[in-house]
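note to self — DONT lose this again. spent like an hour looking for the file last time. sequence + predicted structure for the chain T wanted, 229 res
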Amino acid sequence: MRQRPRPWTSVLLLDTSRLARKPIIAVLFERDAERNGVRVIYKSIPDDDPITGQLIKSVFRALDEYHSLISKAKGLAGMAENVRQGFRAGAPRGYRLVSVRTGAVRDGSEVLKSKLEPDAYAPLARNMPVAKVESIVVETVATDLASSAWAAEALKATQAMFAVSHADEIAAAKAQIAALEARASRMVDVAAGLESPAPVLRRIDEIERERVAVEQRIVAWELEDEGSR
């Protein structure tokens, strides 16, 4: 989306849930898209009334997050029940998964569940206490978080994600200023040879006002780019 030039200027989505289930992520994406000249269009939301569309998006996004949280709760409950019945979805080191017939049939196929069975690494895994494993994991994470290299990479990634760049707009605006100045210069030469140069001088004044407005836009873009670094 930030690459220039690109052959498209819009992103078309079926509904708000296709973008994100978290409202904050959706808002940040749309803000980034707007800064880069990209429109985000939803098929299920009217595009002709921005005010009503914003209200509908807020409601839909709240429902998206609600359904996401409900699905998460049901998924965790299903996983917990699976473990209570003696089945597992994954195997820790020292064990492997073995398929077990449940006797149930779903969509014409037999339903299988997985249970743990010791493997060749089981003696080593059993000799390492759980508290020791947890301690190693916590120490490794703490070391990474305290590392200056990790912090630098995290900062770099965050800045790249939210950085704003108007380099293309600034270059185009500077080219526009050069064209305006060249036009004004030619008109000054024309006005010098006229008995009544007032109309031409008025046009030169209009060009100068347009040039100043473009320069102000450049200054604003440069300040925004500087603030995002």
